[in-house]
Amino acid sequence: xxxxxxxxxxxxxxxxxxxxxxxxxxxxxxxxxxxxxxxxxxxxxxxxxxxxxxxxxxxxxxxxxxxxxxxxxxxxxxxxxxxxxxxxxxxxxxxxxxxxxxxxxxxxxxxxxxxxxxxxxxxxxxxxxxxxxxxxxxxxxxxxxxxxxxxxxxxxxxxxxxxxxxxxxxxxxxxxxxxxxxxxxxxxxxxxxxxxxxxxxxxxxxxxxxxxxxxxxxxxxxxxxxxxxxxxxxxxxxxxxxxxxxxxxxxxxxxxxxxxxxxxxxxxxxxxxxxxxxxxxxxxxxxxxxxxxxxxxxxxxxxxxxxxxxxxxxxxxxxxxxxxxxxxxxxxxxxxxxxxxxx
Length: 343
Ligand code: SF4
What we know:
Strand order of the largest sheet: 2-3-4-5-6-7-8-10
CATH topology: TIM Barrel
Number of domains: 1
Order of helices and strands: EEEHHEHEHEHHEHEEHHEEHEH
Number of strands: 12
CATH class: Alpha Beta
Radius of gyration: 21 Å
Strand content: 15-25%
CATH architecture: Alpha-Beta Barrel
Bound molecules: iron/sulfur cluster
């Protein structure tokens, strides 16, 4: 055990658990049919890179992020069948990510639902990720009839000005309406947010936090914006018209969201962009394979500082020590600096 007792005099033993999302293993390469484990379900991820998307968002290149060109249904079917057969007693979801599922053509949706639906057992369902503009009562009825249990909405930001600058095609009201519809129809709701979008600010983060409090989605994914080569955002970045978040800023913002999520009972299922993205494709922004780990370390540092100011002692378990010492003691140094600043 490591004890941090500075002149700030930590006097009370406290072994707070790691944040809730730390118990969710980081998903593996998204193009690998490997299991992701949420707190309740095994998830088999399938990528539909930008298929169905009404347009290409300024920052997006799902083909690079997921290393998938397009969905090959026939190739996926036997893998999904194996996955289901291997886990007969577990709750399972076949998840479609990386596109706008409900904006796919009705024929393709039916093909997917029918082909994969035939494989589902009693403990399986679908999870889909989609664009908030493509949610209405009819599409939700179709989802219900086809065993979709969870919808993740790519909200990215609830602030209308940020949405406008990012050319997302909807405003705050439409985003909120889509969230309400998903919940009212009895689905599990996931919200995806993207800190660092053009036009985002302390004020837009406050808006996001207020709405998360009100909407209380079941899940939250945080994808801090990075600049990927070949995207329209890359050109804006090269022209000096967009400044991405620094790594530590993005970590701090995500830590703030994590505290809120913990407080209101939202499960965070991912922080940071999948690490399989080739580094040479990233031109800027807070991209790091250990991003989620940094957020946990930041939360731990904050907890230690709080205990310090309250003159309580902290004893760190092995996991917590490792968080501080990893990456050449990055967060140990941050902790020591902040403790020194407190003096
Ligand atoms: S809707 Fe989502 S997947 Fe489609 S282009 Fe925009 S960010 Fe990418």
